[in-house]
Amino acid sequence: MSNVQKKTDVILIGAGVMxxxxxxxxxxxxxxxxxxxxxxxxxxxxxxxxxxxNAGTGHAAxxxxxxxxxxxxxxxxxxxxxxINEQFQLSMQFWSYLVDRxxxxxxxxxxxxxxxxxxxxxxxxxxFLKKRFKALSTNPLFKGMQFSEDxxxxxxxxxxxMEGRNMNEPIAATKIDSGTDVNFGALTRMLFEHLxxxxxxxxxxxxxxxxxxxxxxxxxxxxxxxxSGEIEYHRxxxxxxGAGGASLPILxxxxxxxxxxxxxxxxxxxFLVCNNPEVVEQHHAKVYGKAKVGAPPMSVPHLDTxxxxxxxxxxFGPFAGFSPKFLKTGSNFDLIGSxxxxxLLTMLxxxxxxxxxxxxxxxxxxxxxEKRMEELREFIPNAKSEDWDIVVAGQRVxxxxxxxxxxxxxxxxxxxxxxxxxxxxxxxxASPGASTAVHVMLEVLEKCFPQHLNEWEPKIKxxxxxxxxxxxxxxxxxxxxxxxxxxxxxxxxxxxxVYN
Length: 500
Description:
Radius of gyration: 23 Å
Low-confidence stretches: 494-500
Shape: globular
Mean pLDDT: 90
Oligomer: single chain
Number of helices: 16
């Protein structure tokens, strides 16, 4: 059976944090627009946005060493760290706006204050961390960062990591108290509850089967209603594909020129989760180390305090895995099905270039539980195998595309791909992902609705006061926004810790 539905203004494919953010922005900017959402699963935020499928770090580059690189002259390039921090500040401002207006409630259900720590061992790494600290700590966005090699201080910062450690190897850390733990699953569900009250039609158990351009320039989306078995056709002037790993196959169906010569490489993640409440209580921070040689940036080892269902948890990982699926709930034919004549050479070039990554993934897949525990013991020397269980985290699809750096270059970020006329956009890629959702969705608005931007700008600035402004160059504005956000979001004391 099939039926042609009325036209709508906007269709959002996928009920993750990106669609939730774009829908919430649009409802503030143009409340009269009709929005429909189609999600294959039975609830919002069940794939990459789910709290068990990502690290929950409010990625502000406070502790992630892969966002700062050493230049050939030995100095530290902090430009990426500053950029990611500024992008996270946009998310915090939009969340604060929503809480201030009672559009979402109980911010403690999705964001908690938590120290962010970088931890390194060995003289060479300590030298790098010192230089990184020096380069960042004078920057207003990283104010309050501390560096220490002092054993007593480190025991105070992370007793669980220091207990039973061989103190012959030099160790150092930086700590900043204005970090956060974010439950992106809870946030996504809250945003969709809010959207429903704004008359957004959210359709769960609806799988998008095809998408094509029709003669009037709009898009027709073919949807399978998984409950009734019916095929439905929905039309919209603008479509956003925010379906996580499934975004690439759906984008390919559009046939837009921008969808050509792009491939995807799926990487799965595993975390160790502590099942012993006594151990969980001994740690209170997100502690990031350095990635092993050959490891992709998303495989930086970290020991994380998490707040899930208002309960404190402790996770370690991620261990990379390989599955040909593009989603946890995907198909084993996803990878092979994504290879098209227009991206075959791109994919083959990536395969040839990324031998070290392939080797790393194979090694990771073959790791025994005991080998994973050995890696954990580099962080927690006294870790006991019986205290830890394994959890399969989300699938990530890394973008492969042809760039000035060469054919088949693997991209380690998030990327918006949009049609030249702005009628359709898709989000591809992975980390820092959800943390920068507001920045990424503002990019979608800029690319797809340039004709509305002048009219929308005052409202955007009301929601996101630093929109279009560099916070690094406007310290007073940053301090004001930071203090206000901390108060609204209930981030107890992080404003004082940084500024008083």
